[in-house]
């Protein structure tokens, strides 16, 4: 079976939030596959590479003295950010306030951490800070903003969200898991240099062209990470702050390789090409009478009002149904123009 199985990789999937790994990221992943950054005393090279990865992510996100690590993905990074906020707060009944479009990993985080997740309605698919303010109280430990939402690719007003967090004595966490590698080339205020952001998720394995698993957790100060540290009595290192123990060095090494190859010119080129494609697709769909949301970043959400078929699914179209509307599809425009052309041609055929 394995010999004959063809992997369905990201290349043909219009709605994937992950990109195809850069060739040098693929090579680096293979070289470091059998290393374990979870044991930095033994695997020193990959541990040093992890510092390089965090430095590079810091440069992308306006962080002068970056702290953080390469996580298994955005889910782990979001869980860990809320864990920092919960552990340092002085309350027995912690809650986190987020806009309704926050990724479902926050639901997992709240369950795992026994924290209440309060979600506020959005306005035009963007966080409504007035609605969020109403949910904040003395037990709020973290206020979350999303910089590139999963379903619409919209960017929340991060400076206003950071102000809400500051006023409440809570931490501000920004989820730029998907948007983080596009946003440096836009006018949005989203990163550590733009607002009092405390922690951030930014995933090299999504738009960063690293191999899975490579998520990123960043913190404004190293001391914030102290709240994650667990003693490791028998290892050469004394403590560990990741959620996973043993982890592959493939993600770490490929993140460094991708960022060395692409930051900034390659990522800028990717942003410009993808945005161009997204705008083209949005125009094509609007011209055919479909309701389109975006693109603010390279993601087009559209009500195609046609039944989902196996053929469409094979062509990479997926359901994305937060609105309770099974015909809402999302398309992430890291794909080529010719793929989009054939997708639009298929729609015309229907
Ligand atoms: N934060 C945001 C804004 C996300 O979009 C995602 C995942 C996460 C956090 C969680 O990241 P991990 O999945 O790395 O833990 N966004 C995509 C989604 O849920 C993930 C994805 C990627 C799904 C490729 C399907 C797929 O084919 O839609």
What features would you describe in this structure?
With 350 residues, the protein is an alpha/beta fold. It contains eleven helices and 14 strands. It has a seven-stranded mixed β-sheet, sandwiched between helices. Strands 12-13-14 form a three-stranded antiparallel β-sheet, with helices on one face. Helix 1 (23-31) runs antiparallel to helix 8 (249-262), helix 3 runs parallel beside helix 4 and helix 9 (265-287) runs parallel beside helix 11 (337-349). Bound molecules: ligand 0PR. Residues 13, 16-18, 73-75, 78, 103, 105, 146, 150, 175, 177-178, 203, 215 line the site of ligand 0PR. This is Tyrosine decarboxylase MfnA.
| Strands side by side in the biggest sheet | 1-9-8-7-6-2-3
Helix content: 25-40%
Tally of alpha and pi helices: 11
Rg to the nearest angstrom?
20 Å
Shape: globular
Provide the residue-averaged pLDDT.
90
Q: What is the rounded distance between the termini?
A: 35 Å
Strand content: 15-25%
Main structural class: alpha/beta
**Biggest beta sheet attributes:** 7 strands, mixed
Taking pLDDT < 50 over at least 5 consecutive residues as the criterion, the unreliable ranges are 321-327
- Write the element-wise H/E pattern from the N-terminal end onward: HHEHEHEEEHEHEEEHEEHHEEHEH
| Total DSSP E strands | 14
* Ligands and ions found: ligand 0PR
């Amino acid at each position: 079976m394995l010999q004959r199985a063809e992997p369905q990789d990201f290349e043909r999937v219009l709605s994937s939030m992950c990109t195809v790994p850069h060739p040098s990221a693929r090579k680096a992943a293979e070289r470091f596959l059998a290393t374990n950054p979870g044991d930095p005393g033994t695997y020193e090279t990959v541990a040093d590479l992890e510092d390089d990865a965090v430095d590079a992510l810091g440069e992308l996100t306006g962080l002068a003295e970056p702290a953080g690590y390469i996580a298994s993905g955005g889910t782990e990074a979001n869980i860990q950010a809320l864990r920092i906020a919960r552990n340092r707060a002085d309350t027995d009944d912690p809650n986190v306030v987020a806009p309704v479009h926050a990724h479902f990993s926050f639901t997992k985080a709240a369950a795992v951490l026994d924290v209440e997740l309060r979600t506020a309605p959005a306005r035009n698919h963007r966080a409504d800070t007035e609605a969020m303010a109403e949910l904040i109280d003395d037990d709020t430990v973290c206020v979350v903003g999303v910089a590139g939402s999963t379903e619409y690719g919209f960017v929340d007003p991060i400076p206003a969200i950071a102000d809400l967090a500051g006023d409440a004595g809570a931490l501000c966490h920004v989820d730029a898991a998907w948007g983080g590698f596009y946003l440096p080339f836009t006018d949005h205020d989203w990163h550590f240099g733009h607002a009092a952001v405390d922690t951030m998720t930014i995933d090299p394995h999504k738009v960063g062209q690293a191999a899975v698993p490579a998520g990123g957790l960043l913190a404004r100060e190293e001391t914030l990470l102290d709240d994650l540290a667990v003693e490791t009595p028998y290892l050469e290192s004394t403590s560990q702050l990741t959620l996973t123990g043993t982890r592959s060095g493939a993600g770490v090494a490929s993140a460094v390789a991708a960022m060395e190859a692409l930051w900034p010119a390659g990522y800028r080129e990717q942003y410009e090409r993808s945005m161009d494609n997204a705008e083209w697709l949005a125009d094509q769909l609007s011209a055919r009478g479909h309701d389109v949301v975006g693109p603010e970043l390279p993601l087009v959400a559209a009500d195609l009002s046609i039944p989902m078929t196996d053929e469409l699914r094979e062509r990479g179209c997926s359901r994305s149904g937060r609105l309770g509307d099974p015909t809402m599809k999302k398309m992430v425009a890291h794909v080529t123009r010719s793929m989009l052309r054939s997708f639009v041609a298929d729609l015309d055929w229907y």
